[in-house]
Design goal:
Low-confidence stretches: none
Radius of gyration: 14 Å
Mean pLDDT: 82
Shape: globular
Strand order of the largest sheet: 2-1-3
Number of strands: 3
Largest sheet: 3 strands, mixed
Strand content: 5-15%
Order of helices and strands: HHEEHEHHH
């Protein structure tokens, strides 16, 4: 399943306060690439890779690979992916710069 399919398969009322979720719902998928979001357990912690990209439209097309031994509901999976995408490790200034440029398609195309 792609991130877009996951977003469309969960109850949107649960995420009514999430600005990132709302933004992803409104974004139209682009062509993306062959990248995959990987979800696995590392040292007892859920680890998610390949969610920081230059365009929301691209990430919506990424397939999600969940490790077979990791049992999660779709809602838990989306919670973890949104948490990783909003990354609490950025400073406020870094987050502001990231979100200001995140949906700038011109910059995204230059990076690619």
């Amino acid at each position: 399943m792609t991130l877009r399919e996951l977003i469309n398969s969960v109850d949107s009322e649960q995420y009514s306060e999430s600005a990132l979720y709302q933004r992803l719902r409104e974004t139209k998928p682009e062509y993306g690439s062959n990248r995959r979001i990987e979800v696995k357990l590392v040292n007892g912690e859920i680890t998610i890779t390949d969610v920081h990209v230059g365009s929301l439209g691209d990430i919506l097309t990424y397939q999600i690979d969940v490790a077979p031994d990791l049992q999660m509901t779709k809602t838990q999976l989306l919670d973890e992916i949104l948490k990783e995408m909003s990354s609490n490790t950025f400073s406020d200034e870094e987050q502001a710069e990231f979100w200001n440029d995140f949906d700038n398609l011109q910059k995204a195309k230059i990076v690619r």
